[in-house]
Each structure stands twice: as C-alpha cells, then as structure tokens.
Specification:
rod-shaped, mainly alpha, 6 helices, about 160 residues, about 0% strand
C-alpha cells in the first residue's frame, strides 16, 4: 500500500533518514517536515516492514519508553473504591476535628470576653469607691490619658468623680 503523492515523493526518504539515521523523534521530525504525525508514523512503519527493520523499530520504542517516567499499572475498580472510601473517612474525621477545634475556640473567645468584662467591672468599682469614699485604692497608678476613659470596649461611659 504505497501512496505516491507529492508529499510522499518529497519527504518520505527524509523522514526515514531523520528517524533511523539521525535518531530524531517523531515530534522533532514534525517540526522540520510539514506532514501530519499520523502520516510520519505510517511512513516509518511501512519503511520498517519493507526493509525488515521491525526489531530495530521495537528496540527504538523500548529505548524511548525506558527514558520516559514509568506509568502506574492500572488498578482494580474495587481497589479504587476502597481507597476512595478510606479517603472519604479521613476527610470526615478531619472535618470533625476542625469542628471540635472551632467549638473550643468559640468557648475560649466567650471566656475571654467574660474575663475582660469582669476586669472592666472591677476597674469601675474601684473608680466609684475612690470617688464616693474619697480614698486612694490603687497604689502608684499610672496616669492615663483622657481618651482612655471616654469609652471602653462596650461603649459604656465609666463613672467619674465630679468635685
């Protein structure tokens, strides 16, 4: 089955020369010769059959395949299903752990909020006691700027003494 087209007459010998003697791959030959990949592959196969180069062709393929990264062998569908089920279980467990951590974090945020409110409450109690009883409860208290007392975290104005 020999196709005698213009391209065949022009490039057939060049393709075989590049492939068998120059040891170029089909992809490299495609860059040089304006013919489709299928045509080049067919020409190489027919040339190998006509010249009894099947052994050389197979050796060339083996050399090319040896340089490529190895592909994993196909697995059974049942093995894939088992792996998928295991991965889903791991995902569920991780989601549960994340949910538990979020819950603990929210509880700690609430506790921190309560402690801050408690500290602010005690601070205001001391301010009221100092104003009402005219005694100094805080020892060596630092003078704070006025804006510190203007509003606290919850927007409540602290009680100040007016003398």
């Amino acid at each position: 089955m020999n196709y005698l087209t213009k391209k065949h007459q022009m490039y057939y010998e060049d393709v075989n020369h590049l492939y068998y003697e120059e040891k170029l791959s089909i992809r490299h030959i495609l860059r040089v010769i304006p013919v489709s990949k299928n045509t080049i592959s067919r020409w190489i196969r027919t040339f190998a059959i006509e010249n009894n180069l099947n052994d050389e062709c197979l050796m060339r393929k083996r050399q090319l395949n040896a340089s490529r990264p190895k592909v994993l062998e196909p697995m059974d569908v049942s093995d894939l299903r088992k792996q998928l089920a295991e991965m889903r279980m791991e995902l569920r467990n991780k989601e549960k752990e994340i949910g538990e951590r979020d819950k603990v974090l929210k509880e700690k945020d609430i506790e921190l909020h309560r402690q801050r409110m408690r500290a602010d409450f005690y601070d205001e109690m001391i301010n009221v006691a100092e104003c009402k009883f005219n005694i100094s409860i805080r020892k060596k208290a630092q003078k704070r700027p006025y804006h510190y007392f203007s509003r606290n975290f919850w927007g409540v104005m602290p009680v100040r003494c007016l003398k």
